[in-house]
Amino acid sequence: MKPTHIVFLLAINVLWGFNFVASKMAVDGLPPLLVTGLRFLIVFVLLVPFLKVIPGQMRRVLAIAFLLGVINFAAIFIGLAKAGDVSSVAIVAQLGVPFSTLMAIVFLGERIGLWRTGGIFLAFAGAMVLGFDPKVLQYGEAMLWILLSAVVYGVVAVQMRRLEGVPPMTLTAWMGLISFPCHFLLSAAFESGQIPALAAASAENIFGVVYAAIAATIIGHAGFYFLLNRYSVTAVMPSTLLGPVFAVISAILVFDEVLTMRMLAGGLITFAGIAIITFRNAKPAAEGVPRVRPTA
What we know:
Blueprint: H1 3-27, H2 32-47, H3 58-82, H4 87-93, H5 96-107, H6 113-131, H7 140-161, H8 168-190, H9 194-199, H10 203-228, H11 233-236, H12 243-255, H13 261-281, H14 284-287
């Protein structure tokens, strides 16, 4: 992986890590399905110029837009609304990494080798150390919603890898178009008090929605697809295990959560695993990793 792409991937993880905090700000004052509808309305409005039909790819584009934009984000925002803390949500969400890795091996024929296998397990172990504690059992329903989002994201990562000739912003624009009306309909059907909640929305609520739309979706998800178009799923996905590290750091800075030795140890273990994966990705031929011709 090129050094500039490594830096870009790190920046995406920083954006995504803080997004757990920003999203929690949003759903603390607004219904979660309404939040996701507003998020993708902003995405669609900003990316309308990029919306275009890609011959031969639209079935997969629409499937990805629905799975990622509707099911995945509905599940994760409902989970955030039901959970009592950010860290446990950030950790469970990373189960998308092993799901996507297994799917890439089975359906795409990707190989990861012994070193990267060890790096993935080390990074994932660090993520578990970082966030899990007995209180997570108090949020069983929330964790089930987050687990659903992780499974869906694993499927989406493999489908993104199969896209050809679809620019990242075009895919994100379609996700906005498909997602916002679906979330507004779901909100109308299953939530109440949307108008009073909007009228009483705080600056933090609004900031959370706007951040999720621009930083996490337009920059983060479009950038992630850009990288998936150039590197294998098993090379890119494990690095997202850095998300919980930045999520915990953000929670400490914003919500005054206490930095414990477990958090510090988990972060160091995760960074060690990601370092192994990154250095081994610098020699893809030795690992037998297929390379992809840039298409976007």
